[in-house]
């Protein structure tokens, strides 16, 4: 197959005594004329190829139907008002509706924010909308072209009009209101911002600010000495600001508390002075802060600490409220008069209620198996809202009466996705070191084996992969294919030790686990090498890149999406330095050795037959820079010895994924699945 010309430059560096060539360094500049010309040429070749695929039209119709189903999100309440995201099925972006009661909300409510008003092409999106405690204001974040850079604005709920409050260069954290609704805390990088045309890699040092409504003299609350440190702010009605402070994506953190009184923010009180464990605020009662932690409990527990004691000069003493159990504590929230906890049992969720003393009150019956994707509680309220989803059903909202544990479904605007009857099995493969690696297997009921099979994985950042909805899943199953979703080490499915077993120098375990699942699918007759497609996005894109370079014969198709492919320079782009705690530091010799050993870009070898590969990214991705995909694709096209195509699908004016217009999402998934079908022998319908 003829590909666009990719000029090989002379760049060679000696890193820790190893000579490393980087012939496509020039592709790191996304705005150069040369890169733009290359992107356009790659897209032209890809479009011509995809347009000739027999299954493309079928998958586009299927994905448009799935994504076009009317839907409603999960209510969130504050100050006697409710917000709810909705989509009538035709809108590129969800709208935000508001109402003063659930009946009105269920009937449609009033549209408060419509992202269609932001831009004509639907690529400017809403990233968050947060009600103030008094219910009078909504602070909302706007992103352009899928960027992680956002602007914060404020809208009056009654009038639906914006105030003059605007904050720029906001990244990642959502706004957090003060208890009196006079302002909100936000995290910003004022020194640099892509919107200003600065180097997107040079974030500088972030800082936590307090914006007071109607004023332009925002107050600096926290600025770390180390630019890799970033706090997550939490505010409680009792008058406390809590900061959990992490180095990038490191789960272990510091905890600070600051008293809020009379509009002033008090001095920092050290609650956790050393990053010895993970801590997440679960709520407050009086001056007692409740924390979800894995301190001396790898599966998680809830402890309490009296901040008044810390304020008076004492040390933090932990009182255990909810002890560690056999299941993994995924989330904990003070709710009603007690606590609501979400547990993982073999990568599937259970929701339990506890009283104020930590005694179990029972399980919340959600009426259907699935993953808890959202939990919205309001302090001292006896109602909360849960979002539950599965592999083939979008998020469905439930109202839970915390006094009784009864869960009632809300706002059923969506019918079940049209798929054939599906059989779901829980299986296990054996990894290279003997570790059992569980996975979900979904297949059309009664289908004969072997089947074209899509294998998905992630394996990192303590992220638990549970039965979550992706529009691609029901479309692939409806076409007659099987789906396998792996629970790999590095994730959060089985506690701290499972995560640690897939980090840093142990990252190879993740790749071994994924390979083991693929081999198990083949050895048990579910599929064959020629019918297997492997897929993952972001850290999962890295996973696919590593596996296809280590075992190029394992699968017929590789589908890496927005993957981190250059593990020697990832820390030089966007927020990449934040990942060092999870994966290692290329500037440290010992870390360089294991990163270089599996870096997908550097593992490619000329003369090797690689699987048919469709690399997917967005040209405005400022989380995982598109250069990762560009360089990997150019090198793979150069090295490919077999007849299988190597294509890049580069979406214009989109980023890492969030905020992508619905029509673009449908087209992207359809092209990915049509490509997989072509090279695994799947004929839809």
Overview of the molecule:
By secondary structure, this protein is of the alpha+beta class. Among the domains are: 47-65 and 417-680, Alpha/Beta hydrolase fold, catalytic domain (Rossmann fold), CATH 3.40.50; 71-223, 7 Propeller (Methylamine Dehydrogenase, Chain H). Helix content is 19%, strand content 34%. It contains 13 helices and 40 strands. It has an 8-stranded mixed sheet, with helices on both faces. Strands 3, 4, 5, 6 and 7 form a 5-stranded antiparallel sheet that branches. Strand 18 and strand 19 (264-265) form a beta hairpin. Helix 7 (508-523) crosses helix 8.
Name the descriptors.
Rossmann fold, five-stranded antiparallel β-sheet, Methylamine Dehydrogenase, Chain H, alpha+beta, 685 residues
Total strands: 40
Question: Can you tell me the CATH topology of the domain at 47-65 and 417-680?
Answer: Rossmann fold
Number of helices: 13
Class of the domain at 47-65 and 417-680 in CATH? Alpha Beta
Globular, elongated, flat, extended or rod-shaped: what is the shape?
globular
- Measure the end-to-end span: 29 Å
CATH superfamily of the domain at 47-65 and 417-680: Alpha/Beta hydrolase fold, catalytic domain
Strands ordered across the widest β-sheet: 33-34-36-35-37-38-39-40
* Percent of residues in β-strands: 25-35%
Q: From the helix content, strand content and strand pairing, which structural class follows?
A: alpha+beta
Low-pLDDT parts are 193-201
Radius of gyration: 25 Å
Mean pLDDT: 94
Which quaternary structure do these chains form?
single chain
Q: How much helicity do the residues have?
A: 10-25%
CATH architecture of the domain at 47-65 and 417-680: 3-Layer(aba) Sandwich
């Amino acid at each position: 197959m003829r590909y666009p010309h990719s000029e090989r430059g002379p760049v060679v560096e000696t890193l820790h005594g190893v000579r490393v060539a980087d012939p496509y360094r020039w592709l790191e500049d996304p705005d150069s004329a040369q890169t733009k010309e290359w992107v356009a040429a790659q897209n032209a070749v890809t479009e011509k190829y995809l347009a000739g695929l027999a299954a493309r039209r079928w998958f586009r119709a299927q994905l448009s139907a799935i994504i076009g189903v009317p839907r409603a999100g999960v209510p969130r309440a504050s100050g006697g008002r409710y917000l709810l995201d909705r989509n009538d099925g035709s809108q590129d972006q969800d709208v935000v509706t508001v109402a003063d009661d659930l009946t009105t909300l269920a009937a449609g409510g009033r549209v408060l924010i419509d992202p269609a008003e932001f831009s004509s092409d639907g690529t400017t999106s809403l990233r968050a909308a947060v009600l103030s405690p008094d219910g009078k204001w909504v602070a909302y974040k706007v992103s352009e072209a899928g960027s992680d850079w956002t602007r914060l604005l404020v809208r009056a709920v009654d009038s639906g009009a914006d105030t003059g409050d605007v904050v720029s260069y906001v990244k990642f954290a959502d706004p957090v209101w003060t208890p009196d609704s006079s302002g909100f805390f936000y995290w910003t990088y004022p020194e640099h911002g892509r919107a200003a045309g600065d180097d997107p890699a040079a974030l500088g040092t972030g800082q936590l600010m307090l914006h007071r409504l109607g004023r332009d003299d925002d107050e600096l609350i926290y600025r770390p000495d180390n630019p890799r440190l970033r706090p997550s702010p939490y505010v409680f009605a009792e008058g406390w600001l809590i900061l959990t402070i992490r180095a990038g994506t490191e789960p272990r953190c510091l905890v600070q508390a600051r008293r809020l009184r009379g509009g002033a923010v008090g001095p920092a009180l050290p609650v956790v002075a050393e990053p010895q464990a993970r801590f997440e605020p679960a709520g407050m009662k009086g001056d007692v802060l409740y924390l979800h932690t894995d301190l001396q409990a790898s599966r998680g527990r809830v402890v309490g600490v009296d901040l008044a004691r810390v304020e008076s000069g004492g040390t933090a003493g932990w009182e255990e409220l909810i002890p560690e159990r056999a299941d993994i504590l995924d989330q904990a929230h003070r709710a009603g008069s007690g606590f609501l906890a979400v547990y993982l049992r073999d990568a599937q969720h259970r929701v339990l209620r506890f009283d104020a003393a930590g005694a179990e009150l029972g399980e919340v019956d959600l009426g259907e198996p699935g993953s808890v994707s959202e939990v919205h509680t309001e302090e001292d309220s006896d109602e909360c809202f849960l979002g539950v989803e599965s592999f083939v059903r979008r998020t469905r909202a439930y109202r839970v009466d915390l006094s009784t544990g009864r869960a009632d479904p809300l706002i059923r605007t969506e019918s079940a996705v049209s798929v054939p009857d599906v059989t779901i099995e829980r299986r296990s493969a054996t990894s290279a070191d003997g570790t059992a690696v569980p996975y979900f297997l979904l297949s059309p009921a009664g289908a004969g084996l072997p089947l074209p099979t899509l294998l998905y994985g992630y394996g990192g950042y303590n992220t638990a992969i549970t039965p979550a909805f992706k529009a691609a899943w029901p479309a692939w199953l409806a076409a007659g294919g099987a789906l396998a979703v792996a629970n790999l080490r590095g994730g959060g499915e089985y506690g701290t030790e499972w995560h640690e077993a897939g980090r840093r120098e142990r990252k190879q375990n993740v790749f071994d686990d994924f390979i083991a699942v693929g081999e198990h699918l083949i050895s048990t007759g579910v599929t064959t090498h020629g019918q297997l497609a492997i897929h993952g996005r972001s850290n999962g894109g890295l996973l696919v890149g590593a596996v296809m370079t280590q075992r190029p014969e394992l699968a017929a198709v590789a589908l890496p999406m927005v993957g981190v492919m250059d593990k020697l320079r990832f820390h030089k782009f966007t927020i990449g330095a934040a990942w060092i705690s999870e994966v290692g530091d290329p500037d440290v010799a010992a870390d360089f050795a294991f990163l270089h050993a599996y870096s997908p870009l550097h593992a490619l070898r000329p003369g090797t037959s690689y699987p048919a590969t469709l690399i997917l990214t967005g040209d405005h991705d400022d989380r995982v820079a598109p250069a990762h995909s560009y360089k990997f694709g150019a090198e793979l096209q150069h090295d490919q010895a077999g007849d299988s195509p190597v294509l890049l699908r580069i979406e214009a004016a989109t980023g890492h994924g969030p905020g992508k217009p619905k029509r673009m999402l449908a087209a992207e998934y359809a092209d990915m699945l049509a490509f997989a079908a072509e090279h695994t022998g799947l004929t839809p319908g």
